[in-house]
Structures are given as structure tokens and as C-alpha cells.
Design goal:
The protein contains four helices and no strands. With about 90 residues, the chain is mostly helical.
Length: about 90
């Protein structure tokens, strides 16, 4: 069984955020958003214990999380589209 964090360990939160924003498959979008949010939260935890000034990255993460939540909200408000093919 694959861990929920396995894809995150190999990609940065920025890569996962980008993948979610440009996902074209509506069926995969929810999981892309969830992966990016998990990666962002992991990075927030890392930075909370880190020394130094990380304000720029923290602001970028705030913006990314806002965009992901807006994308998820927009996805939930869209009706499911079904294509019917003529027989």
C-alpha cells in the first residue's frame, strides 16, 4: 500500500501546486489538489522549526494555498459533465 506522502517526498510543494493548477483531467484534479495541500502543510511544519527568515516562501505558500482552495471550490460547484455518443 502506498503512503499518502510518497509522491510528496519526490516533488516540491511548488511542483505539486503547478500540477494541480494545470490538471486537465477533472477526475484527477481532486487528488492533485490534495497532494499539493499536503506538501504545503509539510513545508509549513518544516519552516516552523527552521531558523532564519522565510517570509517570501511563506507568502508564496499562502498564495498557493488560497489558489488551491479556490480551485477546489470551483471544481465542487461545477456540474458533472457527461458526454453522450451517438450509437
Amino acid at each position: 500500500m502506498q503512503s499518502n506522502t510518497a509522491p510528496i517526498r519526490n516533488k516540491t510543494w511548488g511542483e505539486l501546486h503547478f500540477a494541480a493548477l494545470f490538471e486537465t483531467d477533472p477526475a484527477a484534479l481532486h487528488e492533485r489538489i490534495a497532494e499539493a495541500e499536503r506538501a504545503l502543510l509539510l513545508r509549513v511544519r518544516e519552516l516552523s522549526g527552521a531558523r532564519g527568515d522565510h517570509i517570501e516562501e511563506q507568502e508564496s505558500m499562502d498564495d498557493a494555498l488560497y489558489a488551491l482552495r479556490a480551485l477546489g471550490s470551483a471544481q465542487r460547484s461545477q456540474p458533472a459533465v457527461t458526454l453522450h455518443r451517438a450509437a
